[in-house]
Predict the structure.
Amino acid sequence: MPAVTIRNLSEEIYQNIKLRAVKNGRSAEAEIRQILKEAVSPTSYLKIGSELAAFSQKFGPSAKEDLPLAPARHATNQIASLEN
């Protein structure tokens, strides 16, 4: 398994990692692995479906009533051609 050495890590950052590790019941090394895993995991990426669902929740069906919608051009042209 690959090993990584991190140089020039400030004492403050290292102490914060150790505190976080204790809160999560892990060693500092295990906590760093978890932080890296979460940072590069595909599940942490925003998915378009999630974003659209959140948008729908915020601006759902009631928002449609507030939006002025222009009539579709092709529908108006078809009606005009049917009347002639």
